[in-house]
Amino acid sequence: MTTAPVSHSNLNGKDKEEEEEEKEKEQEKEEQEKEKEKEQENEKEKVKKKVKEKEKKKEKKVKVVSCDMKQQYPFEGFNIDGEGPTELMSSFSQWISEGFYKHHAKKRDKDDHYLANCSDLEFKQLDFVFAFPKKKDWFYVMSQPNKCWTDEKSKQQSHSKYRYTTTNCFFKTYIDNVSVVPEYENKIVGTIKGFGIPAKLPWHLTDKVYVPVNCNREFHWVLAVIVLKERHIKVYDSMSSSRTNRKLCAEIQKLSTMLPKYLESNRFYEQKDRTNWSVLESYQGKNKSHPFEVIHVTGIAQQASNSLDCGVFVAAYAEFLSDGLQIPSDGIISQSLRLRYVSLLWNYGILKARSGYVSNNEGPQRPRPKKAKFIDENFVVTTID
């Protein structure tokens, strides 16, 4: 057998092709390695940016309204009929919007409103005596329209000729259900004697008591003001023309009937440290257990129909009255009030936590304004270092 001779030119051609293929593979590897290096560098840069952003956020301090004196109340210096804390409200709006989920508005109340670590406050919790918010969500829900306020809020004014106090939002519930839950009687008595609420002011040392009242099964709140010296209860309803009015009358009537009995059984009328009840015209010729007269106040600003602003209006009514002001017939804008209240609470809570005092009574008492006041010149918006 004979074999065909192999051409040297064919061998050289194959060698060149193999060399070229190897070079191409090496180039591809180099390119891939370069791409990996770039990706790693980009990731490192992203991590650095995130770290810098976190550091910047830590360095940022919330703008709060500061003054030389500790505030006795969150709203001190900002009367409801005066100029609002616009700069503070702007700072709050910016703070509350940081860290939202992308589809924040669609989330339910029970869902987290913020990204991880974006809902934390500067402190473990803030102390409002009646509530202890730990997350930004508490402030967010309070500031939003069509959100019902149900938290209890208490207030007192004890160092002036006119004195008032408030009950928590459960006082009317205690009255309604005391026959079913006997323990509620102790809570009613404790409230009257000033033991059961943060304000701690006994009723016999006051002129009026502000009571938030819920209309059972109607999801609606009104303000009832017990005028002790005149033996009547004034009702301020932001939906006075609605169908809830009849049921409301029955609700308040029960309060007006039960209340005098508890006052008498707990020797309220024997407490004459500040007022001699027996010489007052409204008490003469009447049995001490006689029901209080109920007066439904008309001509006051009303909430929009189909809104959940009753809690906002109750707070506004109470603030107007406790400052000795007449409730306007219109012009109460619920969303502005929501932002005002939540901004002032937020500011007060931050200042209180940073100052390190835990009791509202540690600060000086607020002098009672004789007329409408605007923002004090001593109050300035500043950055706390």
Helix count from the secondary structure assignment = 8
Average pLDDT works out at: 77
- Our estimate of the beta-strand percent is 5-15%
Tell me the strand order in the biggest sheet.
2-3-4-5-6-7
Through-space gap between termini: 101 Å
Structural class designation: alpha/beta
Helix content: 25-40%
Cα gyration radius (Å): 33 Å
**Strand tally:** 8
Strand and helix order: HEHHEEHHEEEHEHHE
Task: Show the helix and strand layout.
Elements: H1 8-59, E1 63-66, H2 86-97, H3 136-143, E2 156-157, E3 164-166, H4 171-177, H5 184-192, E4 208-215, E5 220-227, E6 232-236, H6 244-265, E7 293-296, H7 310-322, H8 334-355, E8 380-383
Parallel strand pairs: 3-4, 6-7
Antiparallel strand pairs: 1-8, 2-3, 4-5, 5-6
Short description:
This protein is an alpha/beta fold and 385 residues long. Helices cover 38% and strands 10% of the residues.
Any overview of this molecule?
This protein is of the alpha/beta class. Helices cover 38% and strands 10% of the residues. It is built from eight helices and eight strands. The strands form two sheets. Strands 2-3-4-5-6-7 form a six-stranded mixed beta sheet, sandwiched between helices. The chain has a two-stranded antiparallel sheet with strand order 1-8. A hairpin with a 4-residue loop joins strand 4 and strand 5 (220-227). Helix 2 crosses helix 8 (334-355), helix 3 runs antiparallel to helix 8 and helix 4 packs across helix 5. The chain is elongated and about 130 Å long. 28% of the residues are buried.
